[in-house]
Design goal:
The protein has 125 residues and is mainly β. It has strands spanning 17-21, 36-41, 51-57, 64-70, 74-78, 86-91, 94-98, 104-112, 115-123. The protein has two domains: 17-78, SH3 type barrels, CATH 2.30.30; 86-123, no CATH class. It starts with 16 loop residues before the first strand and ends with a strand.
């Protein structure tokens, strides 16, 4: 009889998220719940465990989200990286930027239903 054990291999790169107990999340911290969250804890109810009430704003589109979870629940916390660029010009829906090292970068901006976000980044030659 064949063994049904699944041995999955991982990737050597860094994970885009890491687990954290919900009660350990700090106010104004990032958590995977469709974006950036601001959070506060609620009091323990008469019946059951302490719960954490999460209120957050999606970091890409600004939409507000709310959720509640047990304080012992594991949440995914994203690894956030922010890059700052100098804007050179905007042309035909594209941003032309320069990095700190002087490299030119082209950023494609997508727009739908009055929402915009940087969709793709390409280094110019």
């Amino acid at each position: 009889i064949a063994d049904e054990t699944d041995f999955t291999t991982g990737d050597a790169g860094a994970s885009s998220t890491y687990p954290m107990q919900c009660s350990a999340l700090l106010k104004n911290s990032f958590v995977v719940l469709k974006g950036q969250l601001k959070m506060s804890t609620s009091k323990t109810g008469k019946h059951g465990h302490a719960k954490v009430y999460l209120v957050g704003t999606d970091i890409f589109i600004g939409k507000k989200y709310e959720d509640m979870c047990l304080s012992t629940h594991k949440m995914d916390v994203p690894s956030i990286k922010r890059n700052d660029y100098q804007l050179m010009c905007i042309q035909d829906g594209y941003l032309f930027l320069t990095t700190e090292t002087g490299e030119d970068v082209l950023v494609s901006v997508m727009c739908a239903r009055s929402e915009e976000y940087a969709e793709a980044i390409k280094h110019c030659k």
